[in-house]
């Protein structure tokens, strides 16, 4: 089997080249619209009655993108967009018709969230290179959203601009007026500008999307199908300099103690030139970031959490190249635990390391070269240790002053291909571990967007008493257009490959071969709007010492019907079982896992309706007596009105006769047979006062209990033998949190947030607690009550200059 899999990428590559030659050779047609200069700006009120609009050029004749790709927009839903400009910015006035204005979807939501809304969107590419568009969306409710469009369709909505818009219903449907200041756009310093541009609209009650310039769903990305905006001449590029000072105050009550603190600091954004921007945070405050969804983690890898700090989520698409940057490492837990003598104990261990400051520089030149530079510094952090006999206290450094750095060069070419060089580096003061990772990445597509060939090579180096080197390599090819799509790839990680200082490694010491095939509807057929079938084959081998690990077959079918209900079914098979190379937590060892079959199914109702619901269920059945797992989720949402909605989600995961690592000594590795029951209840609600003010409530209770019934020692062949291991590993973990947040965008780019949080967690070395005992113990633990107020105020240099 090993040799057969090695030839698979070559076979697929030849078939891809053949498929490329059979694709159509039609060129993309680009519409053009000419903007005109105005001397007086229109009032941004959603009413297109200003005189300047009367002779403005019009973009019309939209074309359906989904579900009937290529069909002309019906007259009753006609969309028209007018374009003007002056010395400060560019203006858009749009009319979106509706045959039944009462059915225009206008659900209120918070900024950057897309709700049950009709909408109008604009994409602007100041360099007209089909590679770096910015997207601005106005929903019929008046709520704004903006994002950077990324080639892999994972649009970056964390990017925020300051722009102006207004919406008004009228007898034809609804209209919007928009002003986007030049300071929020990126374009070259030229007397005559030519930008890439596209407009799109969505009609929610018929679940249809339209674009001005036709977007072919068979191949390519949205950015490759934009039109052209001309006519903008002799504009002065403004100084792109803004400040975001903040003030915050916190009241904390925990374990009978109440504390107060006040913070102040500032974020700064400066346009170094037309292409590059400097972002800096000085004395950062992340006290209002969301709670992590903590879990009882019994697996071999650490739990990976989402980044909730805005500085690390906004404008980071370059830094995420190659998946080498896991920003939670910066300001995370200390990397060292104190060295204790027999009579010492830790009385205070810091949960997090404090971030001192951070900056990032990023942008892309007119030649397609993207450059990103990130640097962050964390402060020296101590743990407090007590001598139990003498009472003497001492401090020990558990994290020194540390510098975190990411550098990226990303050259795009042929509109949708790129080659990237990425380097991450962590330098810690003193004798603590330093680390460096360098990666070369390639993602090549032909001009017709029918074939994708990719690969990467990464090298990790760590100085931890001695130099440790590791390698990751991957390559693959895919046919990415048409009804039938397929491809093959491989991924290899050596045993010493480790990027955990600033990234997330996961499993190493393995090579995986992967093949895929998919079939899809490109247009509605019969009672279905879309259908997608996927087949994936994966074979995994351990590298040192070389050993077959697993073969996996996964197929799934997903579809949406004319009633906009989503269905899906799937089947995952491991017909020969698995030699689990990670669960023993020891190099060169493995645990035999029996053959497994995993069927699953999901359903989501029509999300347009006031009451919507969905969920999934799956079962893992193993070829072993009594070993089975059930995993399910049920979620519901009720839209009381366009301003108020509530939702509930229930998740459970029941594992019977599971097997997992419990401990080891110098001679043996111990595996326990266990039952694990996990339940999660989540409630969320939101009341939106208007497009700038919102109140939200989130509650989550997580419960997980594990009960061991037998312990065994692990043999060298992966089988188990009887053991006298008797340590208690039973446990029950609870995590409870409530977040209640009031947000008010009181001025463009400026926000006031009032947040109340309540949280507690508990761990009890017992299992099978009844509901009352479980809750009684959880609420007997210290509980955090936190009330905080944070105010940020956006200051633009150009406005400040005008004040004086």
UniProtKB/TrEMBL annotation:
InterPro entries: Carb-bd_dom_fam9, DUF5916. One of its GO terms (molecular function) is hydrolase activity, hydrolyzing O-glycosyl compounds. Residues 44-198 form the Carbohydrate-binding domain. Pfam families: CBM9_1 (PF06452), DUF5916 (PF19313). Residues 237-804 form the DUF5916 domain. One of its GO terms (biological process) is carbohydrate catabolic process. This is Uncharacterized protein. The lineage of its organism: Bacteria, Pseudomonadati, Bacteroidota, Flavobacteriia, Flavobacteriales.
């Amino acid at each position: 089997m090993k040799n057969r899999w090695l030839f698979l990428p070559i076979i697929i590559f030849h078939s891809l080249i053949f498929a490329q030659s059979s694709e159509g050779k039609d060129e993309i047609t680009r519409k053009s619209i000419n903007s005109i200069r105005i001397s007086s700006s229109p009032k941004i009120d959603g009413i297109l009655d200003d005189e300047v609009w009367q002779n403005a050029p019009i973009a019309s004749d939209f074309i359906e993108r989904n579900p009937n790709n290529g069909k002309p927009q019906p007259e009753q839903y006609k969309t028209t967009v007018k374009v003007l400009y002056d010395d400060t910015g560019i203006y858009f006035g749009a009319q979106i018709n509706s045959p039944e204005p009462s059915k225009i979807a206008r659900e209120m939501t918070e900024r950057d969230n897309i709700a049950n809304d009709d909408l109008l969107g604009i994409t602007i590419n100041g360099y007209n290179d089909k590679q770096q568009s910015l997207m601005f969306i106005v929903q019929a409710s008046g709520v704004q959203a903006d994002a950077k469009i990324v080639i892999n369709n994972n649009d970056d909505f964390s990017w925020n601009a300051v722009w102006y818009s207004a919406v008004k219903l009228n007898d034809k449907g609804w209209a919007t007026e928009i002003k986007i200041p030049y300071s929020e756009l990126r374009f070259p310093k030229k007397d005559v500008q030519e930008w890439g541009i596209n407009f799109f609209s969505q009609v929610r009650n018929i679940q249809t999307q339209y674009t001005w310039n036709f977007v072919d769903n068979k191949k390519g990305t949205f950015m490759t199908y934009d039109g052209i905006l001309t006519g903008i001449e002799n504009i002065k590029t403004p100084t792109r300099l803004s400040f975001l000072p903040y003030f915050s105050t916190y009241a904390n009550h925990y374990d009978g103690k109440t504390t107060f603190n006040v913070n102040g600091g500032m974020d700064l954004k400066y346009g170094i030139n037309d292409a590059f921007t400097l972002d800096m945070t000085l004395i950062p405050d992340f006290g209002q970031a969301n709670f992590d969804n903590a879990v009882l983690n019994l697996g071999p890898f650490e739990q990976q959490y989402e980044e909730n700090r805005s500085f690390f989520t906004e404008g980071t698409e370059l830094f995420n190249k190659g998946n080498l940057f896991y920003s939670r490492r910066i300001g995370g837990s200390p990397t060292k635990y104190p060295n204790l003598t027999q009579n010492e104990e830790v009385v205070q261990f810091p949960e997090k390391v404090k971030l001192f400051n951070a900056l990032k520089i990023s942008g892309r030149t007119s030649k397609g070269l993207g450059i990103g530079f990130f640097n962050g510094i964390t402060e020296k952090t101590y743990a407090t240790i007590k001598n139990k006999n003498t009472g003497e206290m001492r401090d020990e450094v558990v994290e020194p002053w540390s510098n975190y750095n990411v550098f990226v060069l990303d050259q795009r070419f042929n509109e949708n291909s790129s080659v990237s060089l990425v380097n991450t580096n962590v330098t810690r003061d003193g004798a603590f571990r330093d680390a460096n990772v360098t990666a070369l990445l390639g993602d090549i597509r032909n001009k017709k967007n029918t074939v994708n060939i990719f690969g990467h090579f990464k090298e990790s180096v760590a100085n931890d008493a001695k130099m440790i080197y590791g390698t990751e390599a991957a390559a693959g090819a895919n046919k990415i257009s048409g009804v039938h799509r397929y491809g093959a790839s491989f991924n290899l990680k050596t045993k010493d490959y480790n990027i955990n200082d600033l990234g997330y490694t996961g499993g190493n010491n393995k090579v995986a071969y992967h093949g895929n095939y998919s079939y899809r509807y490109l247009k509605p057929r019969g009672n279905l709007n879309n259908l997608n079938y996927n087949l994936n084959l994966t074979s995994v081998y351990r590298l040192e010492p070389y050993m077959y690990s697993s073969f996996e077959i996964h197929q799934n079918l997903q579809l949406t019907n004319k009633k906009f209900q989503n269905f899906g079914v799937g089947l995952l098979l491991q017909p020969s079982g698995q030699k689990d190379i990670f669960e023993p937590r020891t190099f060169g060892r493995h645990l035999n896992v029996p053959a497994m079959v995993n069927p699953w199914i999901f359903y989501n109702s029509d999300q347009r309706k006031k009451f919507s619901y969905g969920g999934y269920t799956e079962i893992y059945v193993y070829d072993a007596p009594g070993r089975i797992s059930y995993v399910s989720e049920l979620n519901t949402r009720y839209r009381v009105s366009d301003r108020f909605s509530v939702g509930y989600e229930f998740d459970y995961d029941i594992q019977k006769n599971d097997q997992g690592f419990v401990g080891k000594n110098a001679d043996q590795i111990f595996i326990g047979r266990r039952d694990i029951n996990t339940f999660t209840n989540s409630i969320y609600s939101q009341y939106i006062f208007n497009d700038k003010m919102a109140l939200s409530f989130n509650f989550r209770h997580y419960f997980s209990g594990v009960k061991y019934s037998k312990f065994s020692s692990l043999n060298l062949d992966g089988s188990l033998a009887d053991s006298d291991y008797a340590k208690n590993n039973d446990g029950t973990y609870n995590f409870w949190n409530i977040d209640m947040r009031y947000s008010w965008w009181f001025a463009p780019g400026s926000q006031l947030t009032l947040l109340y949080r309540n949280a507690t967690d508990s761990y009890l070395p017992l299992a099978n607690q009844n509901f009352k005992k479980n809750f009684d113990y959880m609420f007997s633990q210290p509980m955090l009550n936190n009330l905080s107020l944070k105010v940020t105020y956006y200051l633009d240099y150009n406005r400040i200059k005008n004040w004086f």
